[in-house]
Design brief:
Blueprint lengths: L6 H4 L4 E5 L24 H15 L17 E3 L14 E4 L6 E5 L3 E7 L4 E7 L1 H5 L2 H13 L7 E4 L9 E2 L1 H9 L6 E4 L2 E4 L1 H11 L5 E3 L24 E7 L1
Parallel strand pairs: 2-3, 7-11
Antiparallel strand pairs: 1-12, 3-6, 4-12, 5-6, 5-7, 8-10, 9-10
Bound molecules: zinc ion.
The site of zinc ion (ZN) has 6 residues, from loops.
Length: 249
């Protein structure tokens, strides 16, 4: 495994937060090599071994890891002690203030988001593609942290992981209209008859509206850089998933 540690989270000693790339695992093409998702057609034993390699690398118990059955929704799950690695909830955001309970978001073009509240000692992991972003899953997750943990939004540190950029993500006219209606015209780039969408611009606009300033964006486009990351679009939908992981120690 070759995780990247976002700089705005790496200064805190009571959490570990990282994003994986496609390197350092044992899966074979087209999942080579660090695929972490079970639903994409990869050999489940290889996926488990990749999870174990990552757990060893970041120093957590793999059986304590909570991941998600992601459905491009705005459903947020408050993690409790009843969940295990083998029972991922159907949702697109996880929040908790329980220590030694790693939260994982997986992606291959969508934006994985890691959230840390250093005052209330709470964390979140969010999956936001175009649908999730337009359904405001990120602001809703922040609101859920406020309700559950007393989080003040201005205390938050937030990282947007590697995702497909406006350089590569072509969308249809209907989506462009939806962006315009919701005040996200700046996320669109029009080239002749084509329209391209930068989902991170929507997410950053939402954080700006909430006056959240401590934000880091890992700028790499997964489609441009599918040598380094998995890209659902650049690889004809047959590929693995990378992950963002955050652990409260
Ligand atoms: Zn690109």
């Amino acid at each position: 495994m070759k995780p990247v540690f976002p700089s705005i989270l790496s200064t805190f000693t009571d959490i570990t937060a990282a994003f994986t790339s496609r390197y350092g695992g044992i899966s074979k093409v087209p999942y080579a090599s660090a695929n972490l998702a079970f639903h994409v057609g990869d050999n489940p034993e290889d996926v488990i071994q990749n999870h174990d390699l990552l757990a060893d690398n970041l120093g957590y118990n793999r059986n304590r890891l909570i991941h998600m059955r992601q459905i491009h929704s705005d459903t947020i799950f408050l993690v409790d002690d009843n969940l295990t690695f083998d029972t991922p909830p159907e949702c697109d955001a996880l929040i908790t203030n329980i220590s030694d309970t790693p939260l994982m978001v997986m992606s291959a073009d969508c934006t994985g988001i890691l959230i840390y509240d250093p005052i209330q000692k709470a964390i979140g992991a969010v999956h936001a593609g175009r649908a999730g972003a337009l359904n405001s899953i990120l602001p809703k997750t922040i609101e859920a942290m406020s309700q559950s943990f007393g989080t003040h939004k201005e205390d938050l540190r937030i990282v947007l992981g590697p995702s497909i950029g406006g350089c590569c993500y072509e969308v249809n006219k209907q989506i462009a209209v939806e962006c315009d209606i919701n005040g996200y015209s700046s996320a669109l780039r029009r080239v002749d008859e084509k329209v391209f969408l930068d989902v991170n611009t929507i997410l950053l606009e939402q954080l700006k509206r909430l006056e959240i300033k401590n934000v880091e964006v890992i700028e790499h486009c997964t489609s441009c850089r599918c040598d380094e990351y998995f890209s659902y679009r650049a690889e004809a939908q047959r590929t693995g998933r990378l992950a963002g992981v955050i652990i409260l120690r």
